[in-house]
């Protein structure tokens, strides 16, 4: 027994009696790590990359691809991310790639010590009724959460809920009592309302972070801590960080909203506020939410800059003495590393239209050769000189797959969903007809014929 043991024990008892027993939150924090998670989308196919987007991944992919899943898991671990939170539409297989892709992701994640949880998506249209939500939660409880790679904290499986306000509080009370009466899982609710903590085990923000510059993040952190003090509970506060946002490709211009990345400053500021809110965990929106431009996955515009910046911010969060120097640099050339100086790529587009029937359009595009595995379509006019609206060109898959949902504005009567038809419309300008050569010597032949006839008459 060490000298002074009884003196230390007496001091500990004195502190305990003076300040009360250790709080549930303090006891939990002494045993649990502060996790870094990232929302993950797993419903992309080749058609996804033919849609209008603010940016493209360096390597377009299908979410079910083995190479893709392997790459994403390795990139996340390399950036210091502890786990993915997959946006999950439920256990049904028909028309729902998130279910099969969740199974594949769990297997890949296990190999690299990456955890996987789900966010049950009640805003995606697949889970519309209480019974459907109940079935999804029971499928998780009895299936996916038993996988060795599924995220567990203190032996409790973690489940995020997205859009849970679609059901009433009484409905959730009934669901919790039926599905998880012993609180064997951690249900994390979306939104700032502390009233949700009567049923759920924690809060996080999703859409609210789009317009929040940090104030709401701080308020939510305070609200969860106040709830814990007043109820002697140990609810979780999960702060969300956001690199940027742009929904102008998804909604009408009147309702569009953009949050500029400002060279990485928006992302840094988001981390600063999240850290100041004293979170239990941090979740990034997102690893690859391309339709709303919240991704940190390597892209054509930024290369791996945001992945590198994430690694630096994670290191600073875990070791506050670390100085963050990584700065995202926009570029048109994919780059595996942060670019120290801006790279200028000349892009020249010239269009010449002639008012004559022999009008031609000359489109010259000069690009520095890149590793981008898709072709940039050269716009050509229709036979009626109608130029289609600019749009992202379709992307061929590694095996030559051709997306089938080509915009109707490209239609010229052919079935563009047929793989036998070329992806880029083969539209040509009408060629001016050459003058016919038939009867072109007739004016010369007629006088000669008359002279010959007269000569025959004289000889007769």
Layout of SSEs?
Elements: H1 5-19, H2 24-29, E1 36-40, H3 66-78, E2 83-88, H4 97-111, E3 115-121, H5 130-142, E4 152-153, E5 156-162, H6 169-179, E6 185-190, E7 202-204, H7 208-211, H8 215-231, E8 236-241, E9 245-246, E10 258-259, H9 265-276, E11 281-284, H10 305-318, H11 442-459
Parallel strand pairs: 1-2, 1-11, 2-3, 3-5, 5-6, 6-7, 7-8, 8-11
Antiparallel strand pairs: 4-5, 9-10
Helix pairs in contact: 3-4
How is this structure best described in words?
- The chain has 460 residues and is α/β, with parallel strands linked by helices.
- 30% of the residues lie in helices and 11% in strands.
- It has a domain at 20-318: Glycosidases (TIM Barrel).
- The strands form two sheets. The chain has an eight-stranded parallel β-barrel, surrounded by four helices.
- Helix 3 packs across helix 4.
- The model is unreliable at 1-19 and 332-443 (pLDDT under 50).
Short structural summary:
The protein is α/β, with parallel strands linked by helices and 460 residues long.
Fill in the keyword field for this structure.
two-stranded antiparallel sheet; alpha/beta; 11% strand; TIM Barrel; 11 strands; 460 residues; 8-stranded parallel barrel
CATH architecture field of the domain at 20-318:
Alpha-Beta Barrel
Given the structure, what is the number of helices? 11
Placed side by side, the strands forming the largest sheet appear as 1-2-3-5-6-7-8-11
**CATH fold field value of the domain at 20-318:** TIM Barrel
- Under CATH at level 1, the class of the domain at 20-318 stands as Alpha Beta
> What name goes with the CATH superfamily of the domain at 20-318?
Glycosidases
Mean of pLDDT:
77
The largest sheet is: 8 strands, parallel, barrel
Distance between the termini: 153 Å
Uncertain runs are 1-19, 332-443
Radius of gyration: 32 Å
SSE arrangement, N to C: HHEHEHEHEEHEEHHEEEHEHH
Overall body shape: globular
User: Which structural class best describes the helix and strand composition?
Assistant: alpha/beta
Strand content: 5-15%
How much helix is in the residues? 25-40%
Q: Please report the total strand number as a whole number.
A: 11
